[in-house]
Automatic annotation (TrEMBL):
One of its GO terms (molecular function) is RNA binding. PPR repeats lie at residues 54-88. This is Pentatricopeptide repeat-containing protein. The keyword Repeat applies. Keywords: Repeat.
């Protein structure tokens, strides 16, 4: 259906500007464009041109990337979301976890898993963050210092002080990572 809308339905068309004043409409348009064949670029353009993005906006765009099979882009956008200070909700976290599951076991996966390990404890999912770290280790992925920041944060937020100390020791002794102020 999207391919038949023609140029008047593209971001920047006059009728889009009129509806673009409403955040619900903007978020819906980001979602709808992302469903179209080849529409992910239009969706991202609309997302980037929003005066402000809320959690729903970020989730709509991240979800668009996931549905389009662009999991690395979804995870990269999630990192930008974290940096921007917008807090993800449960929907965002499910989308990011889905994106991570789609990625192969390579450097991108290390980055994506580290992002999720660091993001989950901020929303009450500290135990799940620790479980994801353990899965990563069992899969043979060597964590970096940023993964340990997230992991120790997860332990701290979940009352897992003993485990946090254990991971801090492992970080130094097993992985040779020197503690930094964030650890």
């Amino acid at each position: 259906m999207c391919g038949h809308w023609g140029p008047e339905a593209r971001p920047g068309a006059p009728w889009v500007f009129e509806f673009n004043k409403n955040s619900h409409v903007r978020n819906t348009l980001v979602h709808v464009y992302s469903l179209c064949v080849g529409g992910i670029e239009c969706s991202r353009k609309l997302f980037d041109e929003m005066p402000s993005q809320d959690t729903v906006s970020w989730s709509a765009m991240i979800g668009g990337y996931v549905r389009a099979g662009l999991s690395a882009d979804a995870v990269a956008l999630f990192r930008k979301m974290q940096v921007s200070g917008v807090k993800p909700d449960e929907v965002t976290m499910v989308l990011v976890l889905s994106a991570c599951a789609d990625l192969d076991m390579d450097d991108k996966t290390i980055v994506s898993r580290t992002s999720v390990i660091g993001g989950m404890p901020m929303h009450g999912y500290g135990s799940e963050s620790v479980a994801l770290y353990e899965k990563m280790i069992n899969a043979g992925v060597v964590p970096g210092d940023v993964a340990f920041i997230g992991l120790i944060l997860a332990c701290s937020h979940s009352g897992l002080d003993r485990e946090g100390r254990k991971y801090f020791t492992l970080m130094k002794e097993k992985f040779g990572i020197e503690p930094k102020i964030l650890h």
